[in-house]
Structure formats: structure tokens, C-alpha cells
Write a structure and sequence with these properties.
Layout lengths: L5 H8 L3 H16 L5 E2 L11 H11 L17 H15 L8 E4 L1 H13 L5 E6 L5 H6 L4 E6 L9 H7 L4 E7 L11 H18 L4 E5 L22 E6 L12 E5 L6 H14 L7 H10 L6 H17 L12 E2 L8 H10 L2 E2 L1 E2 L9 E4 L4 H6 L1 H10 L2
Parallel strand pairs: 1-10, 3-4, 3-5, 5-6, 6-7
Antiparallel strand pairs: 2-8, 7-8, 9-12, 11-12
């Protein structure tokens, strides 16, 4: 007799490759020593939060004895935090955004789940380019949706508009894009996003209901060589932005993020009311009070992105010198090289034997590649050269 639902049992059976490799890394570190293993499996930022976070925590500690200082608040978040966040989103998205257009959530994951709960009927489809963040499919299925993918272009991983157009059906309810992208580091240019917006407007009219464009943007802050991350909200009325402060403030464990609804969306109040409700009934109730208070004081600050730029250069040097084929990431902190021999799972096993941990591209819906998270010290990256060279030689 099973204690689990068949769906969850199936999920465990094909659980995240990221976590599998992370757990493999723990075993290897116990056996060989932490300083011998080069772990690029998990996108867990190692940089400390900016000093503004520490200052905020000290200031908050002085007020913790006041009534309701960490009590319940409006489900959408503290009004002052929403107002300050709306101003920041308006700057990034290059359009007016007001406090009432923003819902503060338990990270981007909480935001996506609240959004899907609000808009999906059983059988509705969520369409995303592949490769994609591994948990999108699980979030979709949480609410009876069907996760559908359309391949991005080879190697560059730019949007393939023709593939997306072919994948849209009358059941398509959401198109989910992630730029800068995890796992590829691709940043979608404005022309591609404009073309996608036109496609969604056409298909929405054809199918008689709006298709939402949901932009997942936790890496917006992290781009290289002057690359621009185009705003999504001005391009399409039924657009929504979801993001978090896991990466730019190095607060991955604090679970603080937001949903921003296009202020020009017809009947946006209906969606905002639904999101406020789903944020509560999914059990989040509201985003953590302390994290919201930190955000109010630390918004606008960030980690030193130049450190990631140096690590990117070091990772590219190692891969280039050891004979790998890859595209330089335009943003985020991931490389997504081709797997020598074509079998990404087999190749990652050989890498692990050489004390280098990577995640097979199959886990992101794109076999034949593997992901490297370079949010680790530069000394780890340079130390990995020998392991990469040996693994590459095994598939020569």
C-alpha cells in the first residue's frame, strides 16, 4: 500500500537532476574532501548579501518588540514595500507600475504557483521554450495543467518563433519565458519578444481568450558586455512579470519575490484579486514579514556582479582550453555546453568520476548538453581544468 499519490511517486522517480547531482556531490566530498570536488551543480549564490541587508536586519531588530512587527499583513504585502517595489519595476519595465499592480510572493516559485492557480483550468497548457527551468512542469501539473515545450534554436538558444507558433493550441493559456535564461544564459532580444507578443495577440484573438505572457526574471540584474534585457510589460497587454531577490541580494533562502501585472491589462483588477487570494489559499498567506522589511530597506542594492563576470571569463577559458563547444552566456551564471559523445547523462557520470559535478541537459528538456553553475569561487573553476580535460578525452 503506497503512502504517496501516484503523481508524487512518479515525480520522485524522475526527480530533479540538479538535486541528484547535488547529492552525488555530497558523497564525493565526504569521500575525497571538499577541496577536491568541483561542484557546478546547484545555482546557489555564494556571494554574501550586500551590506544594506545586514544594516536592515540590525535596524529591524531594534523594532521587533513593537506590536505586530512581524504579524499578519495584507495578503499582497506591506503597502510601503509594494509602493517602493513598484517604482523599481516601473524603472526596469519602462512603463508606469503602481503599488496595486504588485503582489509580493514567497519567491518567484511561489509567484508562479499563485499565478497558475489563478488562471489555469484543468487541461490548460503552459508553453515554454526548451531548455527550461526544471520545476516549471511540476508547477503546471500542481493545478491540472499540461506543460508543453517548443525547442529554442540550437546552440544560441534564442526563441524559435516558428516552433512556438506550431506549439500553440486552443488550450494554450500561458507562454512562460525566462530571460536571462536558466540553464543557457541566453537573453532574448527585443525583436524576438515583440514578434512573440504579436503572435500571442493573434492567437488570443483566434482562440477567443487571452494567452498570458509570463516572464520569469530573477537574473535580470546579471548580464555581461552591455547586453540589454528588454522590458516585457510594454510589449503585450496580457503580460505579467515574476521575479525574486534570491540572486541579486543573495537571499535564496529567504523566499522573497513578486508578481507585477501589466497596468494596461484589461480588467487587471480581476487578476490581481485572484492572485491575492491564491497567494493565501496555497498556504503562503503572505511573503515573510522580515524578508519584506529587509527588502524595503535594501531595494536598489545588489551583489558585486563583476565577480560573476570574472568567473564567467575563467569558466570560458577552462572550457575552451579543454576542447568544449559552447555559447558564451549573455546573462545569469550558467554555461550550457554540448556534451561530448552526445549522451549528456553518460558524460556527466564520467565528469563526476573526475570529481567535476554538472547537471545533464536532459533534466532541462534538452539532451546533448550539460549545465554548469559558475556561482562558485574562481579557484574552484580553475581547479576543474584537469577533470574537464580527462572527461573530454574519454569521449574523443
Amino acid at each position: 500500500m503506497s503512502l504517496l499519490s501516484s503523481q508524487v511517486a512518479e515525480y520522485i522517480g524522475k526527480s530533479s537532476w540538479i538535486r541528484k547531482m547535488f547529492e552525488e556531490g555530497a558523497k564525493l566530498k565526504a569521500e575525497h574532501g571538499t577541496d577536491k570536488v568541483c561542484d557546478f551543480s546547484l545555482g546557489n549564490p555564494d556571494l554574501p548579501p550586500p551590506m544594506a541587508v545586514k544594516t536592515a536586519l540590525c535596524e529591524i531588530a531594534e523594532t521587533i518588540d513593537q506590536p505586530f512587527s512581524v504579524g499578519y499583513m495584507h495578503n499582497a504585502g506591506y503597502p510601503a514595500v509594494r509602493a517602493k517595489l513598484a517604482a523599481e519595476v516601473a524603472r526596469e519595465q519602462q512603463c508606469p507600475v503602481n503599488a496595486q499592480d504588485v503582489i509580493i510572493t514567497c519567491g518567484a516559485a511561489g509567484g508562479i504557483n499563485a499565478f497558475f492557480r489563478a488562471v489555469l483550468e484543468p487541461g490548460d497548457e503552459v508553453l515554454a521554450p526548451s531548455p527550461f527551468f526544471v520545476e516549471y512542469g511540476f508547477y503546471t501539473q500542481n493545478f491540472g495543467g499540461v506543460f508543453v515545450t517548443a525547442p529554442a534554436k540550437d546552440l544560441t538558444f534564442d526563441l524559435d518563433l516558428d516552433a512556438l507558433a506550431r506549439a500553440i493550441t486552443p488550450k494554450t493559456r500561458v507562454v512562460l519565458v525566462n530571460s536571462p535564461n536558466n540553464p543557457t544564459g541566453a537573453v532574448y532580444p527585443r525583436a524576438d519578444l515583440e514578434a512573440l507578443a504579436s503572435l500571442l495577440a493573434e492567437k488570443s484573438a483566434e482562440h477567443g481568450r487571452p494567452i498570458f505572457l509570463l516572464a520569469d526574471e530573477p537574473y535580470r540584474f546579471l548580464v555581461y558586455e552591455g547586453v540589454d534585457v528588454p522590458p516585457v510589460l510594454p510589449l503585450y497587454p496580457y503580460s505579467v512579470v515574476v521575479s525574486s531577490f534570491s540572486k541579486n541580494l543573495s537571499l535564496a533562502g529567504e523566499r522573497i519575490g513578486y508578481l507585477a501585472v501589466n497596468p494596461a491589462m484589461p480588467e487587471k483588477e480581476v487578476l490581481l484579486g485572484g492572485l491575492t487570494l491564491t497567494n493565501r489559499i496555497l498556504g503562503f498567506v503572505n511573503a515573510p514579514a522580515l524578508a519584506q522589511q529587509v527588502l524595503e530597506k535594501a531595494l536598489g542594492y545588489g551583489v558585486d556582479a563583476s565577480i560573476y563576470a570574472s568567473r564567467r571569463a575563467a569558466m570560458a577559458e577552462v572550457l575552451r582550453e579543454t576542447g568544449y563547444t559552447f555559447q558564451m552566456p549573455k546573462g545569469a551564471f550558467y554555461f550550457f555546453p554540448q556534451a561530448p559523445g552526445g549522451d549528456d547523462v553518460a558524460f556527466c557520470r564520467v565528469l563526476a568520476e573526475n570529481l567535476v559535478l554538472a547537471v545533464p541537459g536532459s533534466g532541462f528538456g534538452r539532451p546533448g548538453y550539460f549545465r554548469l553553475a559558475f556561482c562558485v569561487g574562481e579557484e574552484v573553476i580553475r581547479r576543474s581544468r584537469e577533470g574537464f580535460a580527462k572527461a573530454r578525452a574519454a569521449f574523443a
